[in-house]
Specification:
There is one protein chain. By secondary structure, this protein is of the alpha+beta class. Among the domains are: about 140 residues; about 140 residues, Chondroitinase Ac, Chain A, domain 3; about 140 residues, Jelly Rolls, CATH 2.60.120; about 130 residues, no CATH class. About 25% of the residues lie in helices and about 30% in strands. A hairpin with a 2-residue loop joins strand 34 and strand 35. Helix 2 runs parallel beside helix 3 and helix 13 packs parallel to helix 14. The chain is globular and about 85 Å long. It starts with 11 loop residues before the first helix and ends with a strand. InterPro entries: Class_I_gatase-like (IPR029062), Ulvan_degrading_GH (IPR053161).
């Protein structure tokens, strides 16, 4: 059990300072040569950041041999270190991702390699002519690419399948008549193995539908961890994370009449198990999976294929690993590939919900700050129904270096509202050396200047978790998941594409309408209903596992299972609220059936529209939030939990509204029932009583809401005597209108809490004075001049023109026959020692308008370099210091002269060598125009505004603005910074820290100050975008900020640096609190 402390009532101490199990546990990227020293230092940093644990995650760049003795010693060492900090050590089951290969060790055995079925009109002579020949070659230790299965005659008329037959026996000869007017086109079916890839260390992905392959994966990985760490399983080691397991996707034809190659997910014994399940040979009916039947008639075989495929994947991979974890007292967690849409699930999983059925801690990932509400809803629904402790989320990944605290809070908030309890921030770099620095930044570790303020975020979410892991989710509404109807429509794009797009759009809209309409719901997986404890009660509720629902929505399905239909029939007969949204299903188990239409007589049928849905759901409403004009808010999520007689309510913003930083919205929160309400402030840990009014059986709370605000309330029922007070409220004399908030037509409302007990955030304030410019500023780090272009030559060859460093790196690799260093390349630990036989020389010209007696340079592996500064040999005088990351070392350079300075560097080069940017450091400024950068004097004084235009274009550290203000009399003041571009600010008045500023309305209360002059220092925490970001990627819509985003081409490439604003952008205001 992860949350053992939830057995007792929540106390103030635990809420104020939550223990490790409630805290985030980041992906810690082991992406270098791992050492005990690095482990010690960085775990201490994580502890200071407020994290409760770490996920040991091997990533690109790791030098330590995976799963070997040195690696296991370091994992054990890390576990011991986290225990000294009262933290947890979470394991990860793969070298990089996706999980299943153990860094390529599993798929060294060809039998375990991923494969697919290829249907083509072309003979593939490179593949074996039979399974028997294929097996013989495998037995000899060879690596054949696949084998022939059978052939088909397929007849297509106007894009639809009118006839087909399977051709058994030997592969037809190459001179066979390919097209017969009477029988159609000749197609060949092959089983084709996945090709080897450097991403899998020159192996392939695993066959996730092969249980024997998965058992091999467990033996190599899980058993290895257990061998070394078994005593800590279920103690300091709570879980092991599996990452992005997936099937080789089944593709759809572009059109029913085309003859393009197409692939289907497959494993060798799939036809056998399909026949065992459905009594028919899969290969006999294979064309129906790909082509549409005439007249829009659905194919039962297509539905069964996708269902069986999913079952094979889940039973072989997910269930097998979960069973092992259960037996070894550890949780299986992690996430699957492509969870969000009906299409993506069909392609990579079958259905996401089935994957979670045995997972002790269901998990998801949210990348690129995408609003994947479906992804979390699917996982949390299974967690609710199976009584799991929570949901894990890998979050913040692929958001770039300048993702700020607002982004961290908003994304974390809406995920918490949907049920996420274990936060796995992506990603904390152990090192930034080489390619590791581009591994989907930012680094949530010491390399980001804001790390020292991150406990503000972590403490907040940890406090939330002490509450949102308690009791059970209070959800009244269930929605039948439409994935199986999508399978039925998964045919050629030309015939089914528009329908499938509409189905996915409907799916997305329905989720948004309900969630933003503040109607919480769970999905029902039809495949899981067959194994769950399901019961339609006489009280009109539907029990699914641990949950009870009062309403069931059927969202325009094409087909429904007969078992599902029987269950909802009983539910409706017992008085349950059954709603058909849009068209009623025409098929039961993919066969035409009118029984669903008859059921609508006992149910409610509505149009597939937002208003119709929310109107139908109004009786289910637990919470509503309304503007003064009665209009409902449309940017909030909520979660309600039941703990004994009490309830917990969390409401948060779910949309990024940074443009509304200074705008509040007056809200009336209405909660069904009469409650005493207590505020649990998760930002600071304080608890107080809330001011409430009561009306028509609802509790009302007024709030001024800003863009990142969230609220956590405990709702306690009133004792009988207290409830008598509410009875004094008059009943409305005219018909109640829930949406008319305090229009004067309602009765008197009672305030049951004394005014002086109300502690509101947004007390009235007025402007005392404005600071228009700072007096001075201080940099936390030396300024930086970025050298990311150079002339170059290989060995003694001719000098080549100036080129961006990553481009010239790949040009050199191409010349030498090395694979490019991009997203996918073999791990250093797998390569071992590689000689550096070549020599690359880089030549830089640095223009300076000033002279300086000395500067320094930050560079990787300086001990390997031969340096010439202004054509004079330069001793590599290492200072012991580093710049940003310990892998980027600082080297002293001689005098910087006015004019052109030259830097020549000779680098021994081999397959594992990294050519990277160089950073000149010193007390200077930098002037940038387009592609030209010149060293100049640093600005003596900054103005409020973008510092990239004030001689600090590449600076990524923190800046402290020094200023002052004068009070004419004693005053209780706050400081407001209306506009800034930075992750977070911290404020100090008269050298006393008063706290951070990260969220709207950008105000920090300072308390009562005496009349006179006061010093104000505002530290603007840096981010590393303008130093290490995608500075030559000029596509503003680009969102996959990984290694390839640094290597764009064409219209997405800019020779000029694409910098992003940073700093305090406008005035600072001193406010008096009334």
């Amino acid at each position: 059990m992860l949350y053992k402390k939830n057995k007792k009532e929540l106390n103030d101490e635990l809420f104020g300072n939550p223990s490790s199990e409630y805290r985030g546990t980041p992906f810690w990227a082991w992406n270098c040569e791992v050492t005990e020293e690095k482990i010690d230092k960085q775990i201490e940093v994580f502890h200071e950041m407020g994290f409760g644990g770490i996920h040991i995650h091997p990533r690109t760049g790791m030098e330590t041999p995976y799963l070997q003795d040195d690696f296991m010693h370091l994992v054990t060492y890390a576990d011991k270190k986290v225990k000294t900090e009262n933290m947890l050590c979470w394991l990860y089951d793969e070298d990089r991702y996706p999980s299943g290969t153990a860094g390529g060790k599993v798929t060294e055995d060809v039998r375990y390699r991923a494969r697919h079925l290829l249907l083509t009109t072309e003979i593939k002579p490179e593949l074996e002519n039979s399974k028997e020949t294929f097996d013989l070659r495998v037995a000899k230790g060879e690596k054949p690419g696949g084998y022939y299965l059978c052939a088909y005659r397929i007849k297509i008329e106007k894009g639809y399948l009118t006839a087909y037959r399977q051709i058994l026996g030997p592969q037809p000869s190459t001179d066979c008549d390919r097209v017969s007017k009477s029988e159609g086109t000749l197609w060949f079916a092959y089983v084709e193995l996945m090709k080897e890839s450097p991403w899998f260390n020159d192996q392939t992905y695993v066959d996730v539908m092969n249980k024997e392959a998965v058992e091999c994966f467990i033996k190599v990985t899980h058993e290895r961890y257990y061998e070394v760490l078994s005593d800590e399983f279920g103690k300091s080691i709570p879980a092991i994370f599996t990452d992005e397991p997936q099937v080789k996707g089944s593709m759809a034809l572009s059109d029913g009449g085309c003859t393009e190659d197409v692939t289907l997910s497959f494993t060798d014994d799939l036809p056998k198990t399909y026949k065992n399940a459905y009594g028919i040979d899969l290969l006999c009916v294979l064309p129906e999976i790909l082509f549409e039947l005439p007249g829009g008639v659905p194919s039962l075989h297509r539905l069964q294929y996708h269902d069986h495929l999913c079952e094979r994947f889940v039973s072989a991979y997910s269930d097998t690993i979960a069973d092992w974890c259960e037996a070894h007292h550890i949780y299986m967690t992690g996430h699957y590939m492509s969870e969000p849409t009906l299409y993506s699930q069909t392609l990579r999983l079958g259905e996401a919900m089935r994957c979670y059925r045995k997972q002790q801690l269901p998990g998801v990932d949210i990348l690129c700050n995408d609003p994947e509400y479906s992804t979390i809803k699917q996982a949390s629904s299974v967690a609710h129904q199976y009584g799991r402790e929570g949901v894990l989320s890998e979050l913040y990944g692929v958001t770039q270096w300048d993702h700020d605290f607002k982004g961290h809070k908003i994304q974390g908030d809406w995920q918490a509202a949907l049920g996420v309890t274990v936060r796995v921030p992506h990603l904390a770099f152990m090192s930034m050396e080489g390619e590791a620095k581009r591994d989907w930044p930012a680094s949530i570790n010491y390399q980001s200047p804001w790390w020292e303020q991150y406990s503000y975020i972590e403490n907040y979410f940890a406090r939330l978790n002490t509450v949102l892991t308690r009791g059970t989710a209070r959800v009244k509404v269930a929605v039948i998941h439409p994935i199986e109807s999508y399978w039925l429509a998964y045919g050629p794009v030309g015939q089914t594409g528009m329908l499938r797009e509409q189905m996915d759009e409907n799916f997305k809209n329905m989720i948004s309408w309900l969630l933003f309409g503040l109607i919480d719901f769970d999905f029902l997986s039809e495949s899981l209903l067959a194994e769950q404890d399901c019961f339609a009660g006489e009280d009109g509720t539907l029990r699914i596992g641990k949950m009870r629902y009062e309403a069931v929505i059927v969202p325009e399905l094409l087909t429904v299972r007969s078992t599902t239909l029987h269950l909802v029939e009983k539910f409706a007969a017992c008085g349950g609220k059954l709603i058909f949204m849009g068209k009623v299903p025409s098929y039961v188990d993919a066969e035409e059936n009118i029984s669903v239409s008859r059921l609508t007589q006992k149910a409610c049928q509505i149009s597939y529209e937002k208003n119709a849905l929310l109107s139908a759901m109004e009786p289910m409403r637990e919470v509503g939030v309304y503007h003064q004009n009665g209009k409902a808010f449309d940017n909030l999520f909520y979660q309600m939990r039941q703990e004994g007689e009490a309830r917990w309510l969390f409401i948060c913003h779910a949309l990024d509204q940074k443009e509304k930083a200074d705008q509040s919205e007056t809200a009336c929160v209405k909660i069904r029932g009469i409650w005493k309400v207590f505020v649990y402030n998760a930002l600071d840990g304080h608890i107080c009583m809330e001011k409430t009014d009561y009306q028509e059986g609802w509790t009302l709370i007024d709030k001024e809401m800003y863009a990142e605000d969230s609220y956590l309330w405990k709702l306690e029922p009133y004792e009988d005597k207290e409830a008598e007070i509410y009875k004094k409220i008059e009943i409305w004399k005219e018909e109640s209108d829930f949406h008319k908030i305090r229009t004067g037509k309602c009765a008197e409302t009672y305030n049951l809490v004394a005014e002086e007990k109300y502690e509101g955030k947004n007390s009235k304030q007025h402007l005392l004075c404005t600071i228009h410019e700072p007096d001075a500023y201080t940099l936390d780090e030396p300024n930086v001049f970025l050298l990311d272009h150079a002339r170059w030559r290989l060995n003694d060859g001719e000098w080549m023109p100036d080129e961006e460093i990553l481009r010239l790196d790949n040009k050199i690799r191409m010349i030498l026959g090395y694979p490019p260093r991009q997203d996918a390349y073999i791990q250093p630990w797998r390569l071992g020692m590689v000689p550096e036989k070549e020599r690359v020389t880089l030549y830089y010209e640095i223009e300076s308008a000033i002279g300086l007696p000395a500067i320094s340079m930050a560079v990787e592996r300086p001990e390997k370099l031969v340096l010439f500064w202004n054509e004079k040999p330069c001793t590599v005088d290492k200072t012991g210091a580093y710049y940003v990351d310990e892998g980027i070392r600082v080297v002293n350079l001689p005098e910087l002269k006015k004019g052109i300075n030259t830097l020549r560097i000779e680098i021994p080069f081999g397959r594992k060598t990294n050519l990277e940017s160089i950073y000149l450091l010193g007390d200077f400024g930098v002037w940038v125009r387009g592609t030209k950068a010149v060293i100049v004097d640093r600005e003596e004084q900054l103005c409020f505004g973008d510092i990239t235009r004030q001689t600090l274009p590449f600076y990524g550290g923190s800046v402290i603005y020094h200023m002052h203000f004068t009070l004419k009399e004693d005053a209780d003041i706050s400081v407001r910074i209306p506009h800034f571009a930075a992750p977070v600010l911290s404020l100090a008045i008269d050298d006393k820290m008063i706290g951070p500023v990260a969220f709207a309305p950008h105000i920090q209360h300072a308390g009562v100050l005496k009349a006179g002059i006061h010093k104000l220092d505002i530290k603007v925490y840096g981010n590393r975008y303008n130093t290490f970001g995608t500075l030559h990627n000029c596509n503003p819509e680009f969102k996959w900020y990984g290694p390839d985003s640094y290597r764009t081409n064409g219209s997405e490439w800019s020779e000029a640096w694409c910098l992003r604003p940073f700093g305090i952008l406008s005035r600072v205001e001193i406010l008096a609190v009334n």
